């Protein structure tokens, strides 16, 4: 069985378990294939935690959830040296960051030191304690969540730290049909006689690494590559596309956005079973990649514009090469 078939079967099974959030399932798999981390924003009860936990059940790898709170310390995430009096030495006790899939629940509840410790691990794929450095697993994905409703007592992530995330996904409430399906699924899970659907087969880490290499080989024509570059450039030189756009954008996206757009577009095309990237693949993931990297001006906020509306404007004004 090919890596694509296995990943598509995993996606189908995840969609049956995570009802009403197809975009979240899709973006989780894209992040897994593109080897990046994902920030998910949504109201409580929208299956954010269940999504990554269910993903861990369908693949080879361990999962750990960390609830971020104001009293959390960096060592609670990374681990720390423990003194062993019986032999008079220090022994490193690994923290939850050393799992394959890590859920950083309500990341904006923790102070800056804890956020920095996590984001350093995400960027460098290693952590340092004292004079020692410890490598993280080859398969390592962080899904951080934040609640947009309650902002009291939170520590918003600075733009430089947000830039470390491959994608920033916003999830909304399910529609009426999905709500009915959620009710049925919940009843079945609560029933003592029901047996939860098991994934067709556990996806191995070797298959995931194979999928990553396959996605990187997806063909991207020069016009599509130019389209990516021009979209990025439009955020840095918005006056070339209209004085109103220049008035709304304070700072454009970083080179990480270019790299992320390339990798996620390839992953999106590969998941769809195509061996080439189209402009539609770029547009499909653009909001998730630019949303947390665009810094808007006061004028934009005063006019009630958010990053998504600015990105919609960019799509209308930047032509496909």
Automatic annotation (TrEMBL):
ChlI/MoxR AAA lid domain residues: 249-313
GO molecular function, one term: ATP hydrolysis activity
Keyword ATP-binding: yes
UniProtKB keywords: ATP-binding, Nucleotide-binding
The ATPase AAA-3 domain, residue ranges: 37-167
Family per similarity comment: Belongs to the MoxR family.
One Pfam family this sequence matches: AAA_lid_2
Protein name: ATPase associated with various cellular activities, AAA_3
UniProt cross-references to InterPro entries, sorted A to Z: ATPase_AAA-3, CbbQ/NirQ/NorQ/GpvN, ChlI/MoxR_AAA_lid, P-loop_NTPase
